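# nightly structure sweep
# worker-07 picked up a monomer target from the shared queue
# config: single-sequence mode, recycle default, output format = structure tokens
# input follows
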Amino acid sequence: MMASIAPSPAQLAAFDQALERALSGALLSPSEGLVLLETAYQSKDSAPRDRLRSVADQLRQRQAGETVTYVINRNINFTNICEQHCNFCAFRRDADQAGAYWLDRAQILEKAADAVARGATEICMQGGLNPEAKYQGRSLDYYLQLVRSIKDTFPQLHLHAFSPQEVQFIAREDGLTFAAVIGALRDAGVGSMPGTAAEVLVDSVRRILCPEKINSATWLEIVETAHRLGLPTTSTLLSGHIETPAEQIAHLEHLRLLQQRSRDRGDRGITEFILLPFVGQDAPPTLRRRVGRDQPILIDALILMAVARLYLGPVIANHQPSWVKLGLAGATEALRWGCNDLGGTLMEEHITTMAGATGGTCQSPEDLRGAIAALGRPARQRDTLYEAIDGPINGATDPAIDRAIDPSRSAA
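# output follows
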């Protein structure tokens, strides 16, 4: 968090003007986004943060409605064997290292069957970059087998799978284009792509966080290729480590421009924005020492989620906190700061938990509905693409429900 100082009268005036422009429906400029972040982060007085929260909540209601959505899903991280060495990652292992694992087809199907029995509509599948993960010498064929093993047995499940980094890895291993990889995965049954591996879309930050990963331009190219091929994606930001407020805004600007291009083409594009605050308790020590703390600072995450609502809301209506990283109470509080979705049940979570997160690895639908009910707002189960699964809880009605489940529809 930035040092607490008293913002100047000119800074407060610019802060209030940016809030008013956001309320008017205007797209904020990067400089306006930055003044919002810096003023809220720096201020000793809670009044600017209170005003920011109020505007973000108003825009959330206008852009996404009163209903809070959630999805019943399961994570399957099929391997933690990875060729890369990201400086924030406590999940990856070398093949011969203690704790390394690689799930076989039977284990994956067992997890999928358990998810179906518990009401899941989605499997989210990602894993480490394992150079040995090949079938008949081809990386893509191995990944296609993963997809088909689930879709052939459980065709009703939506498969939300394989990050842009995994797409680049497959393409590199097999000498294929990104479009060829994405098209094959889509045709095999992948329904959407996680917008992970984004971290911060500023290359000077990426060279410290994840020097072996794809650069910002490649991440954007792969996601845009997915959109062009009819595959929706999510979007994420890994925050609260070494990045500056200006770099946070630069990341949001990349996402907004990407989604604007998708919408201009008539693509669904990005379905949601998810903030992922850094958890450093068991992360590699170099970055942990540099950051200087183990758990996220809740108020910093809330401020950034509120600004993200103001900055992205006109083009990305659905915003989600991470209960794994913030705990369910912190994620529920984020629903007052511009978020409209409480995420998924997950059923199991390894990547953040192995970094030392204390939010847990699973939430039941009852847990999520109870948290939403505590705010006095209606809850609704959705699928991966924000279509409604069931009606509002306890017979509640919401005149804005169509906007909550279909962000392409404009607000009244």
